[in-house]
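To whoever is on call:

I kicked off a structure prediction for a single chain this morning and the downstream step that reads the tokens threw a length-mismatch warning. I double-checked the sequence; it's 217 residues and nothing unusual in it as far as I can see. Pasting both halves so you can look.
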Amino acid sequence: MVLDAPSYPDDQVEAGRVLFSGPAEFRLGVAALEGLPPADRLEVCFAGRSNVGKSSLINALTGRAKLARASTEPGRTRELNYFDIGEGRLYLVDLPGFGYAQVSKTQVAAWQKLIKSYLRGRPSLRRVFLLVDSRRGFMDTDHEIMDLLDGSAVNYQVILTKVDKVPKVEVEKTAAEVAAKLKKRGAAHPVVLQTSSEKGWGIPELRAEIAGFLPPA
């Protein structure tokens, strides 16, 4: 079972299960701000370094093996990918991974501008889930995105990924260090979630967390 999983009411866990057992479809990829869909429903987004496991986590969350496709070349995802969850109840947004591939500085600057503009100005964005590899902990790119989120007053929550790959004592140490650092950040949610997409650990809790943002169906 997942380590140190937060507790949610049974009805919220069930609401999360129902939400993510319903339809989940890729809606569109957005390469420029003018391509964003109308902000007519709640959004949550997943951010993190390349190879942190965003695609795997989205697939585990929705119970669909190939909904989000991991690029064969880390850093090559160039768009904000929108997924429609529950037939219009929620947008789940997958941001390009940080730690870009070897592309031009112009292209990197364009990606960064798109991500920063989205995070600063999307009124329907309820929470950013910042994925951090439990084997590595915070890195420079994580601090940079947290600085941006704090400065923009965008609520965010850290998810440790791949906890099945790390001994329990190491996961607990990393989680404690992450939680201590988050106390100094104004926009950070205090609860650090722990997940394993491969084992399914933490997935019901993450579903429940997201379902808690929505009114009853």
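Update from on-call: the warning came from a stale cache, not from the record. Cleared it. Sanity check on the structure: Residues 109 and 115 are 10 Å apart (CA to CA).
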